[in-house]
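Troubleshooting log. The previous structure file for this entry was overwritten by mistake, so regenerating from the original sequence record. Sequence copied from the archived sheet and checked twice against the printout by T.R.
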Amino acid sequence: MRRFQNAFLVILTVGVQVFFSNAVFSQTASGFVFNDINKNGIRDKGELGIPDVCVSNGVEVVQTNAKGKWKLSVSDDTDIFVIKPAGYSVPVNENMVPQYYYLNKPGGSPELKVKGVDPTGKLPRSIDFPLTPSDEKDIFTALFFGDTQASRPEEVHYINHDVVEELIGSDAEFGVVLGDIVGHDPSLFREISAGIAQIGTPWYYIFGNHDSNHDASENKYRDETFERFFGPSTYAFEVGMVIFVGFNNIYFNEEGKYHGRFLPEQVQFLRNYLRFVPDDKLVVLMMHVPIFRCENKEQLFEILEKRSHTFSVSGHVHEQLDVFVDKKYGWHGKEPHHHLINATVCGSWWCGLKDEVGIPHATMNDGAPNGYSFITFNGNNYKVRFKAARRPADYQMNIYLPDKISVDSLGSIKVKVNVFAGNERSVVKMKVDRNGEWMKMMKKELRDPEIKWMHDYTPLLKLEYNGEPVENTLGWPMDNPSISRHMWEGQLSSDLNSGVHTLTVQIVDMYGQTWKAHKVFYVE
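Regenerated output below.
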């Protein structure tokens, strides 16, 4: 039955794509991918073309010929882009946004509240993409930000002070913001990207539901301002042994409600592109809504299941969570597909009481602090390290245990630990005092003990924006914080002597990374 369903989906997708191509693609664009020796962005005399580089119109994917030339069909609203190959770099603009594309919009974007793309005029005779050889390694690290989601200028400053400043000078190869760059105000794209650019590394951006032009008449015009600042909302690039594919998986229906969905042309783009990608390379999909929450996820699964090395990452949920996608989600590969819901920079929408430097605590819904991820790639392998904003690198857990415990109640006291980046493959154990025996802790689905208190305590605050009153809650914009799926629980021994003791908790995560934390408590 599933084989028949997959075949039907392929036929449907190709059929829709044939219609799409015949009905819309009415012109032919061509150009060169070339070695930009003097890095001026222009194909000068003596700068040779580069063969076997992929170029796409968002559906079709072709490779350049021996002279670096490519040719593709286009419409009057087509994003044409080169897929940066490993060992090369593309130019970046003043905000460190890679310039690997040409937006063909002769008439420009429709009239919108927040401006889109200016008219690009007549299709150029030759669209040339400059590349420069770079010293890329097979081992490299990338930065991943979940929702930065600034709704007003004050929150742009939160981003800068909370995460940008501590990352300035980072040796990361590049960074990615996984959608919801803003909170319903695309006019803030420039300020946010200018701040993030101070880190000093190239940054790619994913389209999120809050990044939309909400006055657009159709779904296809929802990303016009995004395109103006960041280029195509679906794209790809290569570094080392890794293929990165960025998807806009936000679909707005006629009522203006959004769903997680991959468009037929996006599915066909992935299928066409992966024809050129050897199976030993790691394919990383980047999106806003988690892959397993998308309506037609099976169409992507059908493509990915055939490959040996896949991984995907999203934001949107305002939690830190690993999901091993298996048959219950419709995945039928040999091994479960690993999907990371990345920590959000804005945490819980920049909510909560402010600290001594004026930044809200912004604790995420599952009790983990706001932050981001370092993902290190080694060939076709990878490992993830969570980093809490403005906290030490080894701050990876919160231990919950009363400061004072009576001897009589020792046997009933539970130790609870929120392991911020923990998952079902983590090993968590605890011991009391230096000579105590290690005891394995059990994974539980619980609400973080402190998050409920913070949720109930934080009051309402009256704000002003552009002179207009805005009511903004310091608490969570939901009834209850979520149940955390990275909590562990253990039982204290009942035979502890009165006095001071130290509880030590150790985590070994799925990548072999080890973290320790301590809690000093008294027995009376």
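The longest helix spans residues 2-24. Archived copy saved in two places this time.
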